[in-house]
Amino acid sequence: MAQRRFRGKEGTIELSRSPFLHVGSIAGTLSLTNVEAVVVLDEAAEDLVTGRAFYDSREQGIGDYFIDSLLSDIDSLQIFAGIHSVHFGFHRMLSRRFPFAVYYDIDQNIARVAAVLDMRRDPAWIRTELEERIH
Known about the structure:
Layout: E1 5-8, E2 11-14, E3 21-23, E4 37-40, H1 42-58, H2 62-75, H3 77-80, E5 86-87, E6 90-94, E7 100-107, E8 110-118, H4 123-132
Parallel strand pairs: 3-4, 4-8
Antiparallel strand pairs: 1-2, 5-6, 6-7, 7-8
């Protein structure tokens, strides 16, 4: 499994935990059940790094649990992509363990994760953030 790292303002995130996730591109994708690949776009990876930093500031180690949980949720898109309701132009999958939502679209049988946002934020802020990331 190829290792992927993303360095953001808040630190580095390791995406090698999943063989199905690809940061920024679809090179070397694997054949999946319902979609060919799940691609985490750079902005969404930055959201994950920011979320990890937030939870680590609360208690050391919680940020890693946050990343593991969200990557598990994102991995589930290989099977469940497309079943989630559409909000602000993206499918929205709610995280099972944290108050975050994964916003994604499907293009040519590829699930592209555009954002991973804290649902405690003002809905107007979420809408503006997603409008900047629209397809």
